[in-house]
Design goal:
With 165 residues, the chain is mostly helical. The protein is built from 7 helices and no strands. Helices cover 60% and strands 0% of the residues.
Length: 165
Amino acid sequence: MLHTTFADSVLARRPVGASLCGEPCLDAENGTMFAQRLTSTFRNHSHINNVLTHIASGRWDRIEDALATLLTSSTEVAPSSPLARNVLDLLWAEGGITGRIMKPLFLDACRASLSPPLAERCAGGIATLASLTLSNFENGHRTATRLPPAQPSNAESPTGFKSGT
């Protein structure tokens, strides 16, 4: 039996060649609000709380800022902050115990807090940033690089946060 995850379905539904064209996952207001919700979600999970407390030296405001940066920055440029790169790796790469816990937690938060089009856009944007960061790592780059220009997508525009959450 083939098991399809939310992340797989997000990437499978995107038309070939479609991208966010450098647009952020979320606008500034929604990105900041969702970063606050994610920070709260991660603080309430014992293992994730411990790991993020360690990598941010106990500065949860830095975790929230890194999340907001990832959610509201262009998807053409890899994150330059080491903390943002670490958080991005935990959100998407599924490496180690923490990544295997954190990615589904992130995707569940997307589904629970955002409208379906916005949840897909958010997951797709994080996937794009993660692949860009991985590509830079594999090529030995330590600085942010730009993706080549992409063709605009005819994707439905996001509607924002779900009501009642």
